[in-house]
Amino acid sequence: MAQKIIIDTDPGQDDAVAILLALASPEIEVLGVVAVAGNVPLALTEVNARKIVELAGRTDVPVFAGCDRPLARPLVTAEHVHGKTGLDGIDLPAPGLPLQAQHGVEFIIEALRREAAGSVTLVPIGPLTNIAEAFRRAPDIIGRVKRIVLMGGAYFEVGNITPAAEFNIYVDPEAASEVFASGVPIVMMPLDVTHRALTSRDWVEAMRALPGRCGPAVASWTDFFERYDREKYGSSGAPLHDPCTIAWLIRPELFQGREINVEIETEGRFTTGMTVADWWRVSGRAPNALFIRDLDRDGMFALLTERLARLP
Ligand code: BDR
Ligand code: CA
Fold first, then answer.
1. Max alpha carbon distance in the chain (Å)?
2. Is 82 a residue of the active site?
3. Closest CA to 38 of 121, 114, 130
């Protein structure tokens, strides 16, 4: 039976590839896509989410708008990485798919109450605002979540938006702190692993050569995204951060990590948003996350190729 998931996202080129991978995979049933403010403001992320779902030809999947700002801080965005639309690379038409009227947080609450307890996985690939807000408003749903598979954090790789913090956690550290303390089983994809999920030129060109419209869109997004990382890290290839979450759901054996304690710094002078990961288990604090540190890169890209080729 397909795994039921809700994708919580701030697209974002790599978010877009994650959404396409999920929509192309029969092992996964996407109950809904919820937008959050992150890479760009909510008014753009919700439009981008609808464009992506429509591109995949999956207008049966509802798209919601969630929170437009972090729980306790002003929004920090990342146009310098993702472009002014958040999804620069290819011009997609304005979506015909309407935005759902229901607030995204209410959708998350309602879906978790409606579906069997322990059957729904949350996949946050942006700041954790919507998830924390849903847990605040409806604590009864916390015990009903199967698990959370998220992209966020960094430890050995250190930060990308500050020297200490990864973007998704930095934007809303209070939300992240509440989610990591919730008791829900967490699988986290930090920069330590996502910086190994780098596109190759051959893979991008194979995407561009796919006969449908999705492959060339993926190629244009990763080309746009690569430019930033090439200048910053000197690496060639774009890191497919967010698709690691969906790939783990489909093929967990491609990834390696450890069950450890991870705490979120919310008060640091220089370290706000840092994920303090007890990899060496020296704190005595109980594990609360499966911290993924390595992957079979070729296996993940083979999976992406095979699945994205199924899309229109
Ligand atoms: C994360 O931040 C965003 O810019 C990406 O989409 C990813 O979710 C990487 O730090
Ligand atoms: Ca993202």
1. 53
2. no
3. 130
| Residues in the 5 Å CB sphere of ion ligand 2 | 12, 15, 125-126, 242
What pLDDT, on the 0 to 100 scale, is given for residue 231?
Answer: 80
CATH number of the domain enclosing 203:
3.90.245.10
Write the pLDDT tens digit of every residue in 3-42.
999 999 999 999 999 999 999 999 999 999 999 999 999 9
- The pair of structure tokens assigned to 32 is 């809904």
Under 8 Å between Cβ of 146 and 187: no
How many distinct structural domains can be found in the chain?
Answer: 1
Please determine, for residue 205, whether its predicted confidence score (pLDDT) is greater than 90: yes
284 falls in which pLDDT band (50, 70, 90)?
very high
Ligand sitting nearest the alpha carbon of 239:
1
Range of the domain at 52: 3-308
In sequence order, the 6+-apart residues with CB closer than 8 A to the CB of 146 are 118, 119, 120, 121, 185
